[in-house]
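ugh ok fine here u go
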Amino acid sequence: MRESLPSATRAASPTRPRSRRRVVATAVALAVGFSAFAAPPAIALPAVPVSIDVLTTNDFHGRLEASGGAAGAAVLGGLVDYYENLNPNTLLVGAGDLIGASTFTSFIQQDQPTIDALNAAGLDASALGNHEFDNGRDDLDNRVIPAADWPYLSANLYEVGTTTPAYDEYFVQELEGVRVGFIGATTEELGSLVSPAGIASLSVGAVVPAVNRVADQLSDGDDTNGEADVLIMLVHEGAATTDIASSTDDSVFGRLVSGVNNKVDAIVSAHTHLAYNHQIAKPDSLETRPVISAGQYGEKYGIMNLSVDPTTKELLAITSDVRPLANATGPGPFAPVPEIEQIVADAVAVAAVEGAVQLGNITADFNRARQTAGTENRGGESTLGNFVADVQLWATEDAGVDLALMNPGGLRANLSYAAIDGTPGDAEGVVTFQEAASVQPFANTLVAMDLTGAQLKAVLEEQWQPDGSSRPFLKLGVSDTVSYTYDPTAARGERITQIFVAGTLVQPTDSYRVTVNSFLASGGDNFLTLARGTNRVDTGKIDLQSMVDYFSANPTESPSYVQRAVGVVLPEGPFAQGSEVTVDLSSLLFSAGEPNTGTATVSLGETVLGTSAIDPAIVDTTDEVGRASITFTVPEGVFGAQTLTVSVAETGTSVTVPIEFAAEVITPDPDPGTDPGTDPGTDPGTDPGTDPGTDPGTDPGTTPGTGTGSGTGTGTGTTGSGTSTGGLASTGADVGNAWLLASLLLGSGLLLVVARRITGRKVGTSK
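structure:
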């Protein structure tokens, strides 16, 4: 049995791998002993380097059974066997999230089968991930850790309000005189990834200074505080992409990689579920060190080989690789370990019993979309996808969410009304625990985040996958708080035409709280915008458990046949009265046996403009099932911006569509107004008077007057001997000219003013 060195002294597992290592080591020692008696001393040869293999896993999440790309726990044990047979100096370590967010087989027993399987596989040490805290610190400290034969490590978790480490910070294993040390660390975002109440007794510190502190301690030459010849960091934090730039940039992980000091010889990472293998320069050094992650679920494994001088304990070389674990084409295949196979089989048997528990009832099938051949169509809107989104919205209401989105690939079976043969506890209309687990077997957690209206539109645009994708379109299930229209003929990035949340049109700058599963939250299925959501909180709620809780609160459910997304192709307006307009509609029906007949109606207010029977033919890989084309004539008296309503009475589907009609044309009135009058006065007078006066007057008056003049019209007057200061000559004939001018100005309404001004001018210039 290998002896571990402080600070993580644990009882050795009484399981196969550890006893085998002891036997191998003993056999080697006996062989060396017998050889000493069999031959005389030889000339001293250069010391042969000690070769140590370090196997790594991360984000296992209780994937006990082989499924898809996941190899299963028994094969993981076979991996250790394989390498131990090649090199007795083999270690298996983890970087966190080994349990939590697990599949039904492990989840139903609080991950105890996974702990048992990892014990049997000979896991030597692991960092603490965030999912180890899913049920709170008390559960981790009082149930999980005592059941595990390996130490859980974290150097940056402290008792609240102190610098006292809450967990073992490091683990040292000695192999052929070489001490290999592992320093653990946990993501600094722990507080936002689990329930705060569950870790209220912890303080989460920065990773880099904590790891550097322990690395310095293990390299200071003081055996009393622990020493190691080789140091490897196990950290539950990871790169955002598999590109090396994500491990060297100014990101959380990039700063971690560059900030950990030169005493750390390798970094084993996790958390982002990505597989990568990089060689990255140590800070201020030409030397590089491996930075690796084995992805997720036991699909791959990491392998590092250390070559160490047995005399000087100098690390001579370190190599690294990340390889497939399931269906391995390289070393292997790795034979499943019978002991672990039995652990898994026992867990499956328990799950079968627990799975027979009846959760609730349904009145009809909740289906995934179908292709014409009857196979699953991930490009079609489905009653099941929308229902799961509704459930996840309900489950995270306490996080203040507005809507939820669900990826079609996360739905692995239908919820069937008919009883399924061989399913314990099932009957018509009954939903069992096992059925619910079959729908969502990935045990994703639900993540809440903020998206702007523009980002929400971008997410929906990303349903159209990159060119060359095996599935060109992935239809997101949306909660019933969301509806939208799209134009399937538009250019990439311009197809979503309207989005409504809670009945209100979404604007680009609006902000929404959105729930998605952890797969989508990381940008899975090319929904990259979701990886950029802000104020992210992992609610710690498992998608399957959310379904269980939902049926507990809502015992009977019926599928909704309302289409939450409708395709609308409308020519560009404006449209004149009397012209014909054709609206092409799609995505009006579901494709998996739901009601597939109906009539599409286009209305303007209370006026029905046109109707058409809906074509139920399936269009493979798309959401275009349920098509109709409606042509209508623009009615009279309708102008400018208006709103059409597209509806299907049989399903309850209804969406609004903006449309632009031609503006109203207004013809000018040829009569500008009232008649200003045609009589300028009854007697303008012909005699300017015999007394011109000496005062030109300071008030021209505001009324043209009705008098006939003060003179009698018989005087001869005088011949202008005075000096004129006005603009007109002082003659009797001027008055007639003035009225002629006034008459010409009648059309513009200036008669009275002009007449007044001219009369005043005449009076003022006569001297």
